[in-house]
Amino acid sequence: MGLPLLSTTLCLILMLSQSLPSSSLLQETNFIDQNRTAYEILGDYDLPKGLLPQGVVGYSLDTTTGKFSAIWNGTCSFSLEGSYKLSYKSTINGYISKGRLSRLEGVSVKLFFIWVDIIDVKRNGDDLEFSVGIAGADFSVDNFEVCPQCGCGLNCDGENRKVSKIRSNLFVSSS
C-alpha cells in the first residue's frame, strides 16, 4: 500500500509543477506595465518615440537584461524626404538602455543599392547616432518627435516634415 501512495503523490507533484508557471515566466510577465506603450518605454530610456513608426500593437521588455521587442501587424516601410528608405519587420528586437538601442534586429535602411541593417542607435546630447556597422549618420533628436507612418513616413496628409542632417550622411538611397 505504501508504493501506490508514493507513486500517486509523485504524479500529483509532477502534474502541479507543470501547470504552475516557472519563475522565469513569472519574471517575464511581471515587469511589463500593460497600461504603458512602447513609445512611453522609449521615453523612459531618454529616447524619442519617433524611432518607432505608428502602429505598434505590442511589445516586451525584460528590465533585468534590457531585451526589448516591438510588434506590428505586418511589415512597415516608408521613405523620408524621398531618399531615406526604411523598413521594419513585423517584430524588431534589441537591447534598450539609457539613451541607446543596441544589437537591433529587424530595422533596415537602403544604402546606395543595398539594404543594410541598423544595428545601433545611440543618443549623444541632442543628436542620435545611427550605425549600420560600416557606416553611420547623426540626426537631431528633434527629427524624431513625431512617429512616422507606414507607407508615407512623415509626408502624410500633404505635410512634409524635413529631416535635418547633422553631418555627412552615408544613409543615401539610390531609389
From TrEMBL:
The keyword Methyltransferase does not apply. Coiled coil: none annotated. Keywords: Signal. It holds the Pfam family DUF538. SUPFAM superfamilies: At5g01610-like. This is DUF538 family protein. InterPro entries: At5g01610-like, DUF538. Residues 1-19 form the signal peptide. It comes from Salix udensis.
